[in-house]
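A protein record in our archive is deliberately plain, so that people and models can read it alike. The tokens are whole numbers drawn from a learned vocabulary of local backbone shapes. For reference, a complete record is included directly beneath this paragraph.
>
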Amino acid sequence: MKYLSDSEKKTKDIAGKIAGQSAGGKIIALEGPLGAGKTTFAQGFAQALGIKEPLQSPTFILMRQYKIPGNEEGKLFHIDPYRLEDRAQAQSLGLDEIFANPRNIVLIEWADKLREELPKHHIRVQMKILSPEKREITVAE
């Protein structure tokens, strides 16, 4: 499915639609260049799940987790491996355990840096910059 966005609000709305279709156990792999809107997408996704606290990019700490209202056994994991230095550092995040919990939802910015760690079944969200205001968002399972 392809979407066009011409604002942060529209990008968040698109993310909200996808979040509405994402039960636990989903892994959303966000790909795109710097400034494409990956963090904005993640913020809209979290808001649609009912998460009230502001979602901040975990660029320097690699991962943040948030409680999902109504999902006591699962969490939203927001991962940003942009500054990941090596595969050992990726393994230290405990991704296998996080992915194995069918109640968790995982959003990964710069997912191409974790391509080998990603489970076979995940949702791939590719974001392209068409102009300073326009983005093309392609979603594929």
In short: The first strand starts at residue 2 and ends at 5. Residues 8-20 form the longest helix (13 residues). The two ends are 10 Å apart (CA to CA).
